[in-house]
Amino acid sequence: MSFILDNFGRTLQKRKESATMILISENYKTGGSKMSGQRYMVNAMGEQCPIPVVKTKKVLDSIQGDAEIEVLVDNETAVQNLTRMGKNTGAEVFSEKKSDKEFHVFIRVKDRQPVTDTKAEEVSCIPDVKGDFVVAVDTATMGRGNDELGKVLMKGFLFAVTQLDELPKTMLFYNGGATLTTEGSDSLEDLKSLEAQGVTIKTCGTCLNYYGLTEKLCVGEVTNMYDIVETMAKASKVIKP
């Protein structure tokens, strides 16, 4: 009887493990266009590091060709470590915060080859990679001169923030910078990824109202001038592009 129960337990465990990864489709859409390849979903809700990374890496190592993996987790630390793991493999990674307890991490690969070396790799978990500094953005362009060039530079600046080993604790957007967190901004994907990794993103409410964008905020929360001043005053340093 014990032998039967033991085998039954192993079967249930295998089913549980396989249920965490689902092949959704042979084709997927990205940026509004249909892409060839496979799309996987890994459900790591309720799992603590390193389990989300381990589960995702198993899927990543089995992929051949183009694919996208969507990983569901419920904590910012998992988002940070999945992002780091994906980027270390050369994948394109972005994430989105759905709620305080639901985050989606997307890992996209091209021309991927399966990993045949099954030697176990050490998975490190970094609990928090946010520094005690603030990024304050008061314009939609970076630098003085040509505005079109300034927009390109600002987009590049915000992307560069996502690549920092130590992320800012808070990002403040006010005056013209308020347009960067609203509908139509070219930097929404980067800002959503930062928010999903635990960066607090705040936009001046007076500024949103002035530009008629109050109902078009797409990432972060609305704040006021008192909070902006207090946040800057408490930060170890403030970076302005």
UniProtKB/TrEMBL annotation:
Any Pfam family: TusA
Q: Where is the UPF0033 domain?
A: 42-108
**Gene3D superfamilies hit by this protein:** DsrEFH-like, TusA-like domain
- What family, per the record? Belongs to the sulfur carrier protein TusA family.
Extract the NCBIfam families matched here. Answer: selenium_YedF
PANTHER family assigned to the protein according to its UniProt record, in alphabetical order: SULFUR CARRIER PROTEIN YEDF-RELATED (PTHR33279:SF6)
What is the protein name for this chain?
Selenium metabolism protein YedF
- The organism is Blautia obeum ATCC 29174
